[in-house]
Design a protein that fits this description.
Elements lengths: L11 E6 L17 H14 L6 E5 L8 H18 L2 E5 L6 H9 L9 E5 L2 E6 L13 H11 L7 E5 L9 H4 L6 H8 L4 E6 L6 E5 L2 E5 L6 E2 L10 E2 L4 E7 L4 E7 L11 H8 L3 H9 L16
Parallel strand pairs: 1-2, 2-3, 5-6, 6-7, 7-9
Antiparallel strand pairs: 1-12, 4-5, 8-9, 10-11, 12-13
The structure holds fe (ii) ion (2 copies).
The site of one fe (ii) ion has 7 residues, from loops.
C-alpha cells in the first residue's frame, strides 16, 4: 500500500449495474441465461474490487417480467451486499419493470406513479428518473416529471448531481433500439443545461456505451444478464452470453470517470513484480512518479523499476 498516500482518490464511488432481467422461478432468460447467477457474480466483483462504494446504482430492467417474487429475490441478493459495503441502494425501473409491483416490493408503496427519487450520499445527489412508460418499451418523462426535475435542480448539491435513467438520451447504432429510445433528449438537455448535473447513468442498450447530452457525459452500463453483439451489422439484433459488465463510476472534485468491469473472472497474474514493488516501497512519495515512469536504456533495462517481469 505504499502508493496510497500519493494516489488521487475520488470523493465518491458508484457501482453502476444495469439490466439484471431477474427471473425468480429458476427459468433461464432466453432459455440460456441464469439471471440470478449473473447478478450474484456481478456483485461479487463489486465487492472484490475493495472500493469504498457509496452507492449501488441499478438502472432498470431489474426484473424481466415484473414478477413480485423477482423483486423480493432482488432485495434478498442486493441488500446484504449493500450492507457489507455501507452503500446506499439506488433502484430505478426499466421498460421490463412495472411500476406497481416495483413500488410495492422495493419501496413499500402501493402506487403506479413514476418512481422518481432523490438519494443524497455525503453531498452527492443522485436523482432517479423513471423513464419507463406504462404499456411501452420506449422511454420518456411526463410534463410533471420534467417539472419535478427542474424544481429539484433549482438548488444545487455540494458535490453536484448524478442522473440515473434507464433509457439513455443518446443515439445507439441499432435501428431497432432507436425505436425504443428516450423520446425527448433535447428537452432533457435544456432542463439540465444550467444545472449541477455532472453525469447521466443509463442502461437499456445491453452494451457499454458512452456519449454526451449537451455537455453532460452519458455512461451506459453493459448488461449484467446478456449483451448485444456489436460485431454484426446494425440491422441485426443479436444477443450473446458475454461479455457482461458493470461500470465503476468515480466522482472526483473536477471530473467523473467511468471504468468497465467485466462480470466474468479471468485468470490473473501480477503485472508488477515483487522486486519492483519492494523497490517502490523505498522511494519517497514525492519521487515515485519519476522513479516509476523513467525509461532506461536497453543495457539498464534489468534495473528499470517499471519493468514488471
Ligand atoms: Fe434490458
Ligand atoms: Fe430496457
Amino acid at each position: 500500500m505504499v502508493l496510497e498516500e500519493s494516489s488521487r482518490t475520488p470523493t465518491h464511488v458508484i457501482a453502476h449495474l444495469s439490466d439484471m432481467h431477474l427471473l425468480a422461478d429458476g427459468s433461464r432468460l432466453h432459455g440460456r441465461i441464469d439471471t440470478e447467477a449473473q447478478l450474484r457474480a456481478a456483485l461479487r466483483r463489486v465487492e472484490s474490487t475493495g472500493e469504498p462504494v457509496d452507492a449501488l446504482v441499478l438502472s432498470g430492467d431489474l426484473t424481466d417480467i415484473a414478477d413480485p417474487a423477482a423483486y423480493r429475490l432482488l432485495r434478498e441478493i442486493v441488500e446484504p451486499v449493500a450492507e457489507r459495503l455501507g452503500a446506499a441502494i439506488v433502484w430505478s425501473g426499466g421498460n421490463h419493470d412495472e411500476r406497481r409491483p416495483l413500488a410495492r416490493e422495493l419501496f413499500g408503496r402501493d402506487t403506479d406513479e413514476p418512481q422518481d427519487r432523490v438519494t443524497t450520499v455525503r453531498g452527492l445527489r443522485i436523482i432517479t428518473l423513471d423513464t419507463a412508460i406504462p404499456g411501452h418499451h420506449d422511454g420518456g418523462l411526463s410534463q410533471d416529471q420534467f417539472d419535478w426535475l427542474a424544481r429539484e435542480l433549482a438548488e444545487s448539491a455540494p458535490h453536484g448531481t448524478i442522473l440515473v435513467m434507464h433509457h439513455p438520451p443518446i443515439v445507439y447504432r441499432s435501428p431497432w433500439m432507436q425505436l425504443l429510445d428516450f423520446r425527448e433528449p433535447e428537452r432533457l438537455r435544456d432542463v439540465i443545461s444550467q444545472s449541477d448535473v455532472r453525469a447521466i447513468l443509463s442502461g437499456h442498450l445491453h452494451v457499454t456505451s458512452f456519449g454526451t447530452l449537451g455537455t453532460t457525459p452519458v455512461f451506459v452500463a453493459g448488461g449484467v444478464s446478456y449483451v448485444d453483439d456489436i460485431g454484426v451489422p446494425r440491422a441485426r439484433l443479436m444477443a450473446i452470453d458475454g461479455p457482461q459488465s458493470w461500470n465503476l463510476i468515480e466522482v472526483h472534485e473536477g471530473q467523473v470517470v467511468g471504468t468497465v468491469v467485466p462480470v466474468a473472472e479471468h485468470e490473473t497474474w501480477p503485472a508488477l513484480s515483487d522486486r519492483v514493488a519492494a523497490y517502490m516501497e523505498m522511494v519517497p512519495p514525492v519521487e515515485q512518479r519519476a522513479a516509476f515512469s523513467r525509461k532506461h536504456s536497453q543495457t539498464a533495462v534489468e534495473n528499470d523499476p517499471a519493468r514488471s517481469t
